């Protein structure tokens, strides 16, 4: 069980600002309790203890500054354009913080890559992270985000603008191209979502 040394009043306010409902403690020793996902935070006089199968659902919000994580993203399209899906994972020093996958209808592969990135960035923002190392195996998305490549495709241009707006919410970020084997979890999630559609 992670213990976060933090002022319980500050922690309660931080959770409320993130949209987490905070309730009264169950005993005289508990100042308050909060639940999010698979985590429960219990506040005592000088610390907050987080329990559950996914403590990072709350620990990232409780730590001052939000912390740093790696974001992996991948999109897949069968037919290009065709049935498409996204996969993404956020990994911190505590391990996998969050991950997701879903089918997104008919898209090109490049559109699916951007959609995966957008979902991952929104999740990182909602977790309260403030530093991101973004990693993907799409050279097109990486080079467009860095400003090294342009696009004439209006849909991709709009997706790039949205991604850049989301990235501005973080204190620090970088984006790098990685080989598919480094991005394997996001790749697996995207392909599993497509396979589940059958």
From TrEMBL:
Domain RNase H type-1: 65-195
An example molecular function term from Gene Ontology annotations: RNA-DNA hybrid ribonuclease activity
PROSITE patterns tied to this protein: RNASE_H_1
SUPFAM superfamilies: Ribonuclease H-like (SSF53098)
Pfam families per the UniProt record, alphabetical: RVT_3 (PF13456)
PANTHER family xref list: POLYNUCLEOTIDYL TRANSFERASE, RIBONUCLEASE H-LIKE SUPERFAMILY PROTEIN, RIBONUCLEASE HI
Name this protein carries in UniProt: Ribonuclease HI
Native source species: Halolamina pelagica
């Amino acid at each position: 069980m992670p213990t976060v040394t933090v002022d319980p009043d500050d922690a309660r306010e931080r959770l409320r600002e993130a949209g987490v409902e905070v309730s009264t403690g169950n005993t005289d020793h508990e100042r308050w309790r909060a639940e999010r996902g698979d985590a429960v935070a219990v506040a005592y006089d000088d610390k907050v203890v987080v329990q559950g199968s996914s403590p990072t659902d709350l620990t990232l919000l409780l730590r001052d500054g939000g912390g740093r994580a790696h974001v992996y993203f991948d999109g897949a399209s069968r037919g290009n354009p065709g049935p498409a899906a996204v996969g993404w994972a956020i990994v911190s020093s505590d391990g996998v913080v969050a991950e997701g996958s879903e089918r997104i209808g008919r898209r090109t592969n490049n559109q699916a890559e951007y959609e995966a990135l957008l979902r991952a960035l929104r999740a990182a923002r909602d977790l309260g992270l403030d530093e991101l190392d973004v990693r993907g195996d799409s050279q097109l998305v990486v080079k467009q985000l860095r400003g090294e490549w342009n696009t004439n495709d209006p849909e991709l241009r709009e997706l790039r603008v949205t991604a850049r707006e989301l990235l501005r919410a973080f204190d620090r970020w970088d984006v790098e191209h990685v080989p598919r084997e480094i991005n394997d979890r996001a790749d697996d999630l995207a392909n599993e979502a497509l396979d589940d559609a059958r």
